[in-house]
Each structure stands twice: as C-alpha cells, then as structure tokens.
Amino acid sequence: MFEGPQSFAPIIPEIILAIGAMVLLMYGAFRAPSENLGRDVGWFAILLFALTLGYLVLQPASSSFLFHDAFVVDRFARFMKVLVLVGASVALLLSFDYFARAKLMWFEIPVLMVLAVVGMMVMISSNDLITLYVGLELQSLALYVLAAIRRNDLRSSEAGLKYFVLGALSSGMLLYGMSMIYGFAGATGFQKIATAASAGDAGANIGLIIGLVFLLVGLAFKISAVPFHMWTPDVYEGAPTPVTAFFAGAPKVAAMALLVRVLVQAFPGNVSEWQQIIVFLSIMSMLIGAFAAIGQTNIKRLMAYSSIGHIGFALVGLASGSNDGLEAVVIYLAIYMVMTLGAFACILAMRRKDGMVESIDQLAGLSQSNLSMAFLFAMLLFSMAGIPPLAGFFAKFYVFAAAVKAELYPLAVIGVIASVVAAFYYLRIIKVMFFDEASEPFQPAEPYVRFVMWAAGVFVLAYVVVPAPLIDAASAAVRSLRFAPTP
Amino acid sequence: MSLMPLFFYLFSVLALASAVLVIVAKNPVHSVMFLIFAFFNAAGLFILLGAEFLAMVLVIVYVGAVAVLFLFVVMMLDVDFAELKSGFVKNAPVGLLVGGIVLAELALLFLAQDLGVSGQSVEAVADGIAAATAPVLPGEGLTGGAPVAGEVLTNTEALGRILYTKYAFFFEVAGLVLLVAMIGAIVLTLRHKDGVRRQSIAEQVARDPKTSLEVIKVAPGGAVIPTGDDAP
Q1: pLDDT class for B130, splitting at 50, 70, 90?
Q2: Which residues lie closer than 8 Å to B30 by C-beta, 6 or more apart?
Q3: Could you tell me which of A337, A334, A338 has the C-alpha nearest to residue A470?
C-alpha cells in the first residue's frame, strides 16, 4: 500500500471518514435540492460508518504509533472507536424521521456528524497534547453547530450558543493546562510527559500538577462532570432530540476515553494526585445527578441529569486507577451508551398528532395504549437504575467492585446511596407509565425508532446470559493501554 | 548596518504616534486606519528583528482580517462613540496606573539584567534559543529535506519544513476544523430567499459584444428609444 518508513494503514478509518465527509458535502452542495437529499446523504454516512467499523474490527490487534508518536492505534482505541461509530450511526438513524417531519433534513447534518466522529476518533487515538486539542476542537465545533441546527427555534439557538460559549471557556482552560504541562515537561507527547513527571524534581512536578488540574477541568466540561455540568440540562433540552441522543452517547464515550488515556499514559506516576480530583468529580456527579433529577418534569432534562450521574459512576472505576477499574469504565461506557440510545428512541416515540411531547406526565398510562413500548422503556429505566438481572446492574457492580478492591470505601458507599436515590426517579417514570390514568395514546413509532428500542432492550436483557464478549474485549483494550511503547 | 537604528526609530516613532492617534482620533474610521498603520510599523520592527514570518502573519491576520472586521463593525453598527469617550477623563487615572505598573515592570527587567540577576545576558539567551531551535528540523522521513550544515534558514522556511513533515497530521486536522467552521457558519446563517439576484459567473463569462451590444444609428437631432432589458 504505502511504501516508506511508516504505513498509514492504522489511520485509514479516519481518512475514509474525512474524505467521505468531503465527498458527501460536495454531493449535497451540487445536487439539485430535493426532499430526499438529506436522507440519501444520511444513508451514505451510515454506510461510511459501517465501512469504517468493519475496517476497525478487521485490523490486527497490535498497537501502532504514527506521526512521530502523535497518534496511537491500540485495542483500547479500536474498542472506543467502535462504540463511537455505533453511537453515531444509531443517532443518525433515529434522526431521519424526526428531521423529515421538522422539514430540517439538511444534508449538512450527516456531514457534520461524520466530521464530529472524525474528531472523536482523533481524540481517542491521541498520544500527544496537540492531537488531543485538534481532535477535541473538531468534535466540539461540529457539535455546537448541531445543537443550534433548528436555527428558527429559540431554545435550539440558546442551546447552541450556551454550549459554544462554555465550550470555548473549557477549551481555554484546557489550553492553559496544556501550556503549563508543555512548559514543565518540555514535550507534548504523552510518553515523554510521563517520563518527565516521574523523573522531574518536586518543583517541576508542581507545575505539571497545576497543568494537569486545568487539563482535567477542560475535560470534565466535555464529559459534563459536576461542577462543570451546568450546560448539560439546557443543551440537552434545547437541542433537537436526535442530536441530544447523539450528544449523550458518542462524545461522552470519546471524552472519557481521552480522559482515561491522558491519566493512565501521560500521568501514570501521579496517581495519588489525580485520584483525589477524580474522586471529587465522581462523588459530586453522582450526588448532583441523583438529587437534581428528582424535581425534573421534562424527560430530556431528566436524561441530562441521568447522564451526569452515569458519568459519575464511570469515574468511580477510573478513580480506582487499577486495571479492573479501567475495565469497569470501558464496560460501563458501552452499557451506558446502549441504554441511553434506547431511552432516547423511546423519547422519540413520544409523539402526538400535534408534535413531539417531552413532559413526563405525557407518559401517563402508556402501558394501556402501547404495552410493548412501556415494557421496553421500563426495562431500560430499570437497567439505568441498576436493578439486578439487567445490564446496568453489572455495569455498576463492576465499578463498585473495583472501588472496593482499591479500598476506596467512602466512594463506593456514596455511589450506592446515589444509585438508590437515582432509582427513585427512574421508578417514578415507570409508575407514571403503568399506574397513572391513561392519557391520549401516542402516534405509532417509526420502524427505525422501534428497531433501536428493541435492540437496546434485547442487549440489556441478554447481557446477563452472554457477558463474555464485552468483558473480554474490554480487558484486552485495557491491557493494551498499559503497554508502554518504545519510541 | 548603520541604517538599522534609523529604521528602528522610524518604525517605533510611527508606531507609537499612530497608536496614540488610534485613541484620540474623533472619527472611529480614522482610528481603525491608524490602527492598521500601527500594525504595519510593528511588522516593520519584526522584519528588523529578522522575524519575517511574524511580520507577514501580523499583516495578513491583523490588517487583513482583524482590522477589516473592526472596520465592518464600526461602519455597520450604530455605536455612539462620543458617549463611549465621555468617561475618558474619569477613567484616565486607572489607565495611567496600569500603564505605570507595566512601565515599572519593564524598568525592573532591564535593571535586573544590568545587575546580572537573571544570570544570563540577552545574547546568551538568544544563543540558547538559536541552539534549541536549530536541531528541531526533521531530516528524516517524508521530504528528505535535511538541512545542510551551515545552511541559513529563514523563519518561514524552518516553519515550513517542520509543519509539512513532522506536524503534517495536525495541519490536516486543523484544516478539517476550519472546514467544520465554514460549514457551520453557512448552515446557521444562509437563508434561501426567492427573488434574490445571484451572480452567475458562467452567464457573465458567456457574454460577448454580439449579444450585449446594440449599435444604433442616431439621426442628428433624433432620440434613442431604449429597448429590451434597459427599458424603464
């Protein structure tokens, strides 16, 4: 293929997507505008995602470093990229009918999603602060535009603007931290930073830690961990629902992957320092995610707080810093993404003749009008609450087990309390669906939406029977993360 | 070489003078013009320092983009500049204080250098920077453009050699970021309206005198009656 000192084979997924996005953009711009243009481009984008996914799965299991160690492709990266691609494809699939009904199915939406996915994949593969930053910006910029895509809608514009301003602020923090790290480590590559951080004297280390704190603040914004979560409910509520489904899945997974990689590969010798920060973020996210959600009446806002809480639980695994903990994070993210996408499919099915409804009260008596949807939604919510036979229980179980093993007992105890509180508001929705007086039934859900609902439901239920593939993949991914490269 | 100080003072004086004029000019458009002039003089100073790349960037980015943006804002927004300036006398002490602090810091810096507090002379620092940047150039890999020993590289050349080899990946992804910015700006603001007259370049190019010119013989004392598109 490519002769020379380095082969581009490991980065071909990103190249496929980037070139594909540009081709789709040209196709959309030069073809005569028609009703189906957006949908056609959307299907092509899903095809691109599928191609990329296939290529990723078939790649050899080894780790490779490209561009002077700025870009790494290991099993961890491949696993996370597969998650991101699945999340993006499903969100795109969910968006077709929604945007068609809103007369908004512009071809730019799939193109922006593809470019955002390129950004996320660069983030996941970053092995250098500059890669981290360009990937993050590529992703964020596309997401800001997607949040504001209903430009005639006041709330959507507000969501986009809020997301943009706060995102720019967090990028500033991130860059400041990166400049400190570069200044004190003298390098931007993660391995070189790790060497500097473990070998440096105490004075240099303080500078590095300050840089690390700012870097963590910037990344905490992106995963919306408390106290940097303020934008989440507003953006989730204001953005169009399929876009929210996209936000809640893929970008969170990518940012978490980035966080894990930065902490584990660039600061492996400073566990005691970053552990405190992660423990704090985790506890706050779990508590705020649980308590603030209780008073919500809008289901999208509720999902926002729910996702804040879930990120808190995932951070419990990261706080332990052990391989078990990281494995738990990876599994948690996979299960979280499936549950979230399924829940958003249910939210997209909440449609009356006169448009979408978002209030929880509107679900009243769903079990009488549409038993299968009520049953699936209830199962997904039970799973999110962490009720035993379902996948969500195991996700929580792994992270808490890792925390206990790492002797972080207070963290585990607070986590269990938070998940009990969170169970309350999930159960409240189930109560509304099954025991409240029936209101007007919803319009029948579209086939794609129904498909996603069922697929998520089956996954959540089947995980207990066949957990091995996910666990094996996660543990292989985490082991590749600990592999120290020899530059 | 004796001309260097002359140019230095020329650019410095002009830069300072136009900077002062930016804030005292009555007409905001003149302010922006003086700002542009100040940028040009600063660019001249950079060239004297041998930093020709910074000079170019200053002109392209600040004059070409930022100052023009200012002009747009000044001309398109109805800002009452008289009112903005009314607090000038009241706020002047604060400005003077900040300026004084900056001046004192600069003075301290020079004093410290004279006293040898910093431990390194300016020349030593400059040599250090030169030594640190020289071996950065990547000889290996894609271009084979290894610097020959003793070869003097300009800033632009040095940056180019590293940007398109070692940092090619970042360069490409930054290009994608700009593409997203462009798509975003267009998606969020372009509105297709009916009845908007758009430029059709093909049509303009395809015009020739035969189809667009009409020779009319006007009889002495007669009038030309417009026909076709020009008819009122």
Answers
A1: low
A2: B21
A3: A334
**Residues of chain A above pLDDT 90, percent:** 57
Q: How far is B27 from chain A (nearest CA, A)?
A: 32
8 Å CB contact of B187 and A106:
yes
Q: Specify the pLDDT at position A164.
A: 93
**Strand positions, DSSP E, chain B:** none
The count of C-alpha atoms lying within 13 angstroms of the C-alpha of A360, restricted to the half-sphere facing its C-beta, is 21
- Residues from chain A that touch B194, judged by Cβ atoms under 8 A, are none
- What residue type is assigned to position A87 of the chain? G
Mean pLDDT of chain A: 89
* Partners of residue B176 in chain A, C-beta under 8 Å: 18, 115, 118-119, 138
Structure tokens at A329: 């994070």
Q: Residue A407: pLDDT above 60?
A: yes
Average pLDDT over chain B, rounded to whole? Answer: 80
Q: Are B10 and B3 in contact (CB under 8 A)?
A: no
| CA closest to B185 among chain A residues | A145
B183: nearest CB among A71, A112, A119 = A112
Nearest CB neighbour to B180, from listed A66, A141, A151: A141
Q: Does B183 touch chain A (CB under 8 A)?
A: yes
Kindly list the residues from chain B whose CB atom is less than 8 angstroms away from the CB atom of residue A99.
none
Model pLDDT for residues A88-99, shown as the tens digit of each residue: 999 999 998 888
Show which residues on chain A lie within 8 Å of chain B, measured between beta carbons. Answer: 4-6, 18, 22, 25, 66-68, 70-71, 106, 108, 111-112, 115, 118-119, 122, 130-131, 134-135, 137-138, 141-142, 144-145, 148-149, 151, 160
DSSP tag of B215: -
Residues 6+ apart with CB under 8 A from B190: none
Q: Which residue of B has its CA nearest to A26?
A: B183
Q: What is the DSSP string of A217-272?
A: HHHHHHHT-TTS-THHHHHHHHS-HHHHHHHHTHHHHHHHHHHHHIIIII-GGGHH
Strand duo A64-66 + A71-73: pairing: antiparallel
Least confident segment among A401-405, A416-420, B79-83, B171-175? B79-83
Q: What's the pLDDT band for A254 if we cut at 50, 70, 90?
A: very high
Using one digit for the tens of pLDDT, what is the confidence trace for B76-98? Answer: 877 776 777 777 778 888 989 99
What is the gyration radius of the CA atoms in chain B, in angstroms? Answer: 28
Q: How far apart are CA A203 and CA A215, in angstroms?
A: 19
Checking if the pLDDT of B187 tops 50, the result is yes
CB atoms B180 and A130 under 8 Å: no
Q: Indicate if the pLDDT at residue A309 is higher than 90.
A: yes
Hey, is A355 helix, strand or coil?
strand
Tokens of B230: 């020009």
Measured between CA atoms, how close is A59 to chain B, in angstroms? 21
Chain A: give the shortest CA distance to residue B189, in Å.
8
Q: Taking CB atoms and an 8 Å cutoff, what residues of chain A touch B162?
A: none
Interatomic CA distance for residues A415 and A409, integer angstroms: 10
Selected residue of B171, B183, B186, B192 to mutate for chain A interface (largest A Cβ count, 10 A) = B183
For residue A411, the tally of other CB atoms under 10 A from its CB is 25
The pair of structure tokens assigned to A79 is: 């696993």
Contact A66 B170 (CB under 8 A): no
- Is A268 a residue whose pLDDT tops 80? yes
Instruction: Report residue A408: phi and psi, to 5°.
Output: -95, 65
Report whether A403 contacts A319 (CB < 8 A): yes
Residues forming a β-bridge with B40: none
Give the SS3 label for residue A22: helix
The predicted pLDDT at position A172 comes to: 94
- ipTM reported for the complex, 2 dp: 0.90
Query: Choosing among B165, B167, B172, B177, which should be mutated to test the A contact, i.e. which has the most A CBs within 10 A?
Result: B177
